[in-house]
Design brief:
This protein has about 280 residues and is α/β, with parallel strands linked by helices. About 40% of the residues lie in helices and about 15% in strands. The chain binds NADPH dihydro-nicotinamide-adenine-dinucleotide phosphate.
Length: about 280
Amino acid sequence: MRLIDGKVISASVKERVKNEVALLKREGITTGLAVIIVGEDPASKVYVANKKKACEALGIISEEYALPESTTQEELLALIDELNNKESINGILCQLPLPKHLDEQAVINAILPEKDVDAFHPQNVGKIMLGDYDFVPCTPAGIMEMLEYENIDITGKTCVVIGRSNIVGKPMGMLLLHKNGTVTICHSRTKDLKEVCKNADILVAAVGKPRFVTADMVKDGAVVIDVGINRVDGKLVGDVDFEGVKDKCEAITPVPGGVGPMTIAMLMQNTLTAAKKQNKR
Ligand code: NDP
């Protein structure tokens, strides 16, 4: 079993981004990310703080807009409009989930596609489908980066993704398909999930259920990517029963220290890509 170390791989991505940000700066071009957070969700606050820290370490200017829970749709859209027009801001991210009274899709739609570093805007989603894209949602992008770093060839492989969310499962399936994998996307209505998973050369678990993937669902020699972040008795646990599965795998990502650190690194990459595009580099 080989451990796929997200800390090492994300550090190499961040180093690459940091160098490119510095090169742009020498040409007088700054790289800036605006992060909007509405309300007091504790997990969201931690994510936003981590994003800010990563920006600072890489020379990316970060602006945080912490709005109260009572913010109206109009107020939020007005802020996005202002940031869309702000030259020093290359990327805009609105931390999800939003409070219930706000229309998430309308907010995503309002962000200029060229500043949409989360790649959630319908235009960017469509481009991923077509295979002609600048931004990929950060988590699936991070997983592709890990597979490449580990020299794991996808061509012709049977790839199974458990989960069909717009932010992980669906784009993950498309990216694996673009790399010539034979892809199955599973969900809560999938029949014989165990049998489907057992065929996978590459198995990606994005379910949101602690230790959901057990050894009997994994083929000998599979590559297993665990996207899950679940809190059990105060501990972070993935969607894969790591202890039970690890000895069957050719390679596996741990939780924590696997996909998680990659997600932030790819956000930094997307912000750099936005700055380069907007400055025709
Ligand atoms: P969602 O809740 O949006 O999606 C979960 C998916 O799992 C759904 O498609 C659901 O199916 C499917 N599912 C649920 N139960 C079963 C089941 N019994 N059998 C088969 N499929 C099932 O979650 P996300 O995609 O947003 O996130 C998934 C996990 O990844 C979470 O733990 C989340 O915290 C984590 N995550 C980690 C990130 C990171 O940086 N590492 C980033 C983003 C997410 P259906 O559609 O039928 O309901």
